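Single-chain item
Fold in token form
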Amino acid sequence: MKIYALLIASSLAITSYTIHDDAKAHRQFFKDKESNNKELNINWREIIKRNSKNLKSDKNYEASLLVRAFARGKVKNYRGALKDINKLIKMDSKYNNLAILYRGWFHVNLRNYSEAMDDYSSLIENNEYLKDSYTNRGFIKEIFYDQKGACSDWKIGGELGNEMALSAFENHCENFAS
């Protein structure tokens, strides 16, 4: 009988997040994030291989961890990228803020929106990568039904020069009053 109380309590504490139909801007978020690897002719797999080789000789080579994580993200291996980036962050390297920005991107692509929101909020608190952090956090807020918060973040991101934030604000925040 005690297990049922635990199960009920647990199920009430777990929040499920769904993307509502009115959240149109998040579609732009994913669309605009599409890479143009073919245009740039970058061999991300070769970059992963080269940096993996560097890491065999020095497991704490921060630059290689960062580059390999980014390259893994480009080939949509977000779990591998997250593993690299978390290791880099634990090392408390000089790349931490950039690593947190990338980790937010990886979390978004894995649909771990709460974790991504935490990363972008952390960067905003640290006054780092504000243009991208406000923009990306705005898209996540829209997914979480927080239109006012999304518009506020997009407005700031747009004022800082992010075209995607400005576009989202202009197209989805006509009733927003600051």
Summary: Confidence is low (pLDDT under 50) at residues 1-20. The longest helix spans residues 44-57.
